[in-house]
Structure formats: structure tokens, C-alpha cells
Amino acid sequence: MAGLGQNQSMRRYQFQVEVRPQYLPEQSDPEAEMFVFAYTITITNTGTVPAQLISRTWNINDAEGLHEKVKGLGVVGHQPLLKPGEEFEYTSGTRLRTPTGTMHGTFFCVAEDGEKFDVDIPMFVLDALSDDPSRRNLH
Hints:
Structural class: mainly beta
Strand content: over 45%
Distance between the termini: 61 Å
Largest sheet: 5 strands, antiparallel
Number of helices: 1
Low-confidence stretches: 1-7, 133-139
CATH class: Mainly Beta
Radius of gyration: 17 Å
Number of strands: 8
CATH superfamily: ApaG domain
CATH architecture: Sandwich
């Protein structure tokens, strides 16, 4: 019985996160070991209770093992309050010293009823070397 209550609770407070990363060759300088990436995040409240995104924590890793942790309030200057079914989309960016790396993190949220919860941001790859024909070559 306790397990059922926990599952119901988890569904009440739930955000879905979708990430679309993009390499920005026009802002990058590979010879200076600077690779710039944008990422678009779509956050959807898939739970049953309105909740507000309060803060974020990012873990950024380059291909040489350099790890950077970034914490801050909100996202791009906002702390969106999302009702069930609502979504918020934003684009931000990061720089790496290597042409590839990864990012993952968490959003800290507070539901309208005061319940606090974390939302995992799944790991995604930052890749300036992709064979994707829509991207320019580095040479």
C-alpha cells in the first residue's frame, strides 16, 4: 500500500524535460580551443499539481575530463510556474575547450502545495564533429 502512495505522489509532481543541443560554428574558434553550443530545453508539467522551477544545477564535462558545475536561480532569468500540461521552452548555451562533451543536471522545483522535488535533466551530448550534413566542417 505504501508503494502505491509513493507512485501516486511521484506522478503528482512530475516534469518532463526534452533537450535539443546544437553546435554553433559561427561563434566557435577551434584553433583557440573554443567550441560554442546552444541547447533548447522544453520543460512540461506532466504531473497533476502546478509547480514552479526555482533553480538549476548543470554538470558540464568536456572530452578531456574537465568538469564544471554551474548552479543558479531559474532559467534564463525566469522561474516559470507551470500548471499541469503547460510547458516552458528556453535556449541557452555553453562553451567547451574540446569539440565534444556532455551535460546533465537537475531542476529544483516547488509545487503549489509546498512539496519540493528535483527533476533530472538527462545527459546529452555536445558534438562539433558530427557527420550531420546540416553542420559545417571544422576545416
